[in-house]
User: What shape does this take?
Amino acid sequence: MPASRPIWKGQLRLSLVSIAVELYTATKSSAKPSFRQIHEPTGKPIHYEKVVAGVGPVDKDEIMKGFEYEKGDYVLLSNEEIDAVKLDTRKTLELTQFVGACEIDPIYFDKPYFIVPADDLAEDAFRVIRDALRASEKVGLGQLALRGKEYLVAIKPTGTGLLLETLHYEEELRKADPYFAEISAKKADAELLEVATALIEKKTAPFDAGVFKDHYQAALRELIATKLKSKSKKVSTKDEPDEAAPSGSNVVDLMAALKSSLEGSSGGKKKTPAKSAPRKKAS
Assistant: This one.
């Protein structure tokens, strides 16, 4: 059984078929060091008080949630009123549409969760939906009310279970056009494209997330371990020189850089990328 507690329990529904399922977070918050703000002279953690201008600290019982409909004017809502909002998606996740596994743009994906059958009775129907999704190469879409918000979600098979990924709604995403407007639509040079494609092919390998490590988090943990070992309040670190800004003499020929990378590249070695010439704005 999972070591963590489910963050949601309910029914996964496909038409008239309902399956009791549980939802678990697929990521670990403990994977990264967390920090608190500390008062250095005393070594004690800093706490925050909820205060009102002209009033001072207030009790938790006096706090409500407010929606600002005009500057400085709010509609107040109690937790009871918010909880009373009835949504079928609070207890039921219905698969209302199916799309091709590659149809959803990666920009929509947010957070992953595991879906597992709640008991042995639900397992048979759970396997049917899992295997049907795998056989059809489709992703199921639905909506789920979770932690005060209704999420758009995508469900697909993973191993012997199901993976649920929350999706951003369209209105939550920025339009890309303003950011890409000045990039020319001109096609890349054919020869350069050929060499770059060959370089990509040479470095192509099956995906293995275990190969990649979070070097920043590892360095933080090493720093913490050093501090604990030395019992020192300060650890001296050598200041690394700032990377020099590219100048005209540093700009190398793009074709030469690509060919050099292609000749010297290997799956297990990393090479410092050469600097390319500054991009001209599209006219």
